[in-house]
Specification:
alpha/beta; six-stranded parallel sheet; 12 helices; 13 strands
């Protein structure tokens, strides 16, 4: 190889030898290199599939050949993941997928000379005592940064994009930091027509089936015994949308999930509950509205009315942001295409 060998001044980075479209990365720690490449080099194979390059392991080195844009993306992906291992993290398939997405997105708005100088990937993250979550798509990155920046954040888009999970994670982080005194979880119980009094059990038992996704995320962020104690003490509060009227919610992280199933009046009532030193996160999917025919979704109206309001951030996820099984993204895309076509046909008939 004719390329000039470049040695990073930082021991955190691998040694690099390169030419126009050819990289050799040598990693100092053999164990980390093995974890980075994956069992049977599965992570390198994923790089090859996603970036259309050739990546071959040789001991604790990897030879990367391909288009200059793609090889730079591969280098920065591996560099980021190697640092993650050095910091005590692990590298799963989802981590590789996320790093590739971020490397590609970071290059979209850059010229080649600028892109080649961009040495490191940076991804937003949410940390609690139990878990650290790192953005896996550019939209997740933007959403997580909006959660830190804005007092009211809308996260809208299809299932599997992480909008609710990240909202709960951010609320847990705020609670641990002492930035808020409580977490309030709410979700419209459309199937029960909001007549929760007819359901058996106490308030928590009445709404548990509707709030299960929020509970699952909470238990992922906070040890189970602490979640139970926090609920008992009122630090984590279950507040059905039907019973929110008249309250002022101060010093709290407030989450409204499945907001597409609120009416316009319910949404206005909920948004105006925001009190001093509180953060409000509203999540939903406008393509999955379960309201009776002819009833306008409060989420759809709010997105239209509040789009330019200062202090409010709106993050819109798409099918490419789905971080569950890859098949979920293709399913969402197929349904969205049908949904759009049906709307266009209805518009033409009107």
């Amino acid at each position: 190889m004719n390329g000039q060998e470049l040695v990073s001044s930082s021991p955190r980075h691998p040694r690099i030898a390169s030419d126009a479209n050819h990289f050799v990365l040598t990693f100092e720690n053999n164990r980390f290199a093995s974890e980075l490449f994956g069992q049977f080099d599965q992570n390198l194979k994923l790089l090859e599939q996603r970036l259309h390059i050739d990546a071959r392991a040789r001991g604790n080195s990897v030879v990367i050949t391909g288009d200059v844009l793609a090889t730079n993306q591969a280098r920065r992906t591996l560099d980021y993941l190697y640092e993650k291992l050095q910091k005590g993290g692990s590298v799963e398939r989802s981590d590789v997928e996320g790093a590739i997405r971020m490397a590609v997105a970071a290059d979209d708005q850059l010229t080649l000379p600028t892109m080649e100088k961009k040495a490191k990937l940076t991804m937003a993250q949410i940390s609690t005592r139990k878990k650290t979550i790192i953005a896996r798509t550019p939209t997740q990155d933007a959403y997580m940064r909006a959660l830190e920046r804005s007092e009211m954040v809308f996260g809208v888009g299809p299932a599997g994009t992480g909008k609710t999970y990240l909202a709960v994670a951010h609320a847990a982080q705020l609670l641990e930091r002492g930035a808020v005194e409580k977490i309030i979880l709410s979700r419209p119980a459309v199937e029960a027509g909001e007549r929760l009094g007819f359901l058996p059990g106490d308030m928590k038992e009445k709404v548990d089936p509707y709030l299960r996704p929020l509970y699952d995320a909470l238990y992922d962020m906070i040890p189970g015994d602490k979640v139970e104690r926090a609920i008992t003490a009122g630090v984590i509060e279950i507040a059905p949308l039907a019973f929110m009227r008249g309250r002022t919610l101060a010093n709290a992280a407030i989450i409204l999930d499945e907001a597409q199933n609120t009416t316009a009046m319910q949404m206005k009532m909920f948004l105006t509950r925001l009190g001093e030193n509180s953060r409000m996160i509203i999540t939903g999917d406008p393509s999955q509205i379960d309201l009776p025919r002819g009833v306008k979704s409060g989420l759809v109206e709010a997105l239209h009315l509040l789009n330019e309001v200062e202090g409010i951030s709106i993050t819109r996820f798409k099918d490419i942001d789905v971080v569950r099984h890859p098949l979920v993204g293709r399913i969402v895309k197929a349904y969205d295409a049908t949904y759009i076509a049906a709307n266009e046909e209805a518009s033409q008939q009107d």
